[in-house]
Amino acid sequence: MALVENLAERNIDAILSILTDVQQRYRLNEDIYKEANDEIQDILHDIELSNPKNARDGYACYKSLREARIRRRQAKEENEVLKGCMILLRRKTLWHLN
Description:
Elements: H1 2-49, H2 55-97
Helix pairs in contact: 1-2
């Protein structure tokens, strides 16, 4: 019986660890998304408001914009996968608070 209880406890600990990791990763992705979005807006404002750029500077803007959009998309897509777990966690947390 002790072996079964030990196995159950280890499995519960593993599940709780995974759920904690999901929450942390979801929040990190939210921060990455916001930072990348702010960076994109800064680049677009620079393009809109500054003097026309030469080819080298224009390419640097393109490259920065592309990299920020890729980071933003990766964070958004990962959070779409994690969203179901986060909804479940929020429901369970609210259920335990009642």
